[in-house]
Structure formats: C-alpha cells, structure tokens
UniProtKB/TrEMBL annotation:
Cleaved signal peptide residues: none
Native source organism of the sequence: Helicobacter apodemus
Source taxon at top rank: Bacteria
Matching InterPro entries: DUF305_CopM-like (IPR005183), Ferritin-like (IPR012347)
Pfam families: DUF305
Domain DUF305: 9-64
Full protein name: DUF305 domain-containing protein
Length: 68
C-alpha cells in the first residue's frame, strides 16, 4: 500500500524516508492553494512552505544518500 511506512530496520533512515513524502504533500497542497486563492496571507504562507519544505526535502535526501 502506498501509505504504508517504510521500514528498513534503520530508524534514522526510516524516519527520513517517511518524512520526505510528508513534506512533498505539504508542497503539493501549497501549490494547489496558490492556484485558487487571492488571500495575500495565504499566498505568503504557501510560498514559505514550498520554499522551506523543498529545502528540507533536499537536506533529507542528501542525508539518506549518505546512509546507503
């Protein structure tokens, strides 16, 4: 099942592997609201979320790569 947690036996690796899709979901939701909202506060929050979550995703991917 797509939403089943990843379990490799390495808790650090599993944490990162499961947090990446969580952060990607926040990016997708933010991109969706930007297509329809005109609220300047929501626009700012959504843009900030996209920027920060993408930064964190890249950091987690880099850490995961180092665990291989």
């Amino acid at each position: 099942m797509e939403n089943d947690p990843i379990k490799s036996g390495n808790v650090n690796k599993d944490f990162l592997a499961n947090m990446i899709p969580h952060h990607q979901g926040a990016v997708v939701a933010s991109e969706q609201i930007l297509k329809i909202t005109k609220d300047v506060d929501i626009i700012k929050i959504a843009r900030d979320i996209i920027k920060e979550q993408n930064r964190e995703i890249a950091k987690m991917q880099k850490l995961l790569k180092g665990m291989e």
